[in-house]
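re: that chain from earlier
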Amino acid sequence: MRTLAREPLFDSVPTDKRRIGLLAHLHLDAPLLLGLIAASCLGLIALYSAGNGSMDLVERQLIRLGVAFGVMAAMAQIPPDKLRLWTPPIFAAGVLLLVAVLLFGDVGKGAQRWLDLGFMRFQPSEIMKLSVPMMVAWYLSGRRLPPSVLHVLVTAALVVVPTALILKQPDLGTALLVASSGGFALFLGGLSWRLILVGLVAVGMAAPAFWKWGMHDYQRQRVLTLLDPESDPL
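^ sequence. v structure.
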């Protein structure tokens, strides 16, 4: 009886459940992983189309995706307590690097977004895509939820500072991603719908001023082309 109790009834477990068990063992969320794979496949299809059927671009992007998914799997093995401990210094280092970019960053194609390390160019704004939502989660984790108005203002400052520094480079796309990642972290923290409505109204009121004074001509043209693709035959 003891021998039977120790023998796993593995053959009776369906294959799909074994796979889910493996993902759980690796601390990977199955729906999120499938969504990332689907989005990556759509990106590869778009890249193949933009490259006029060239597989060279697709193959290089596949290598980058392989590295990215490997890093994701490795990061998933780090205990949350360790991530919580490292979050403030990583966020602070990212903000300081963004300031360094504005002071003596490397300029390329009209934008000052990189730090030249000699052997490679490094874009500090990439750090903020992860450190901003982590910092928002770190701040809210020790406080009563849903967050109060004061806590919302503090988290908003944590998001606005790096976003503004990235906008100065200028890099509107990355700035929007960083701001969105911080906003989603705040939303998942239990932000009340009343404060969400107030925020949407404030953004709507500020949008015309941002369009006129906060955006470059080429950035406005990108938005107009998105809304009316036929306006640009290329």
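The two ends are 74 Å apart (CA to CA).
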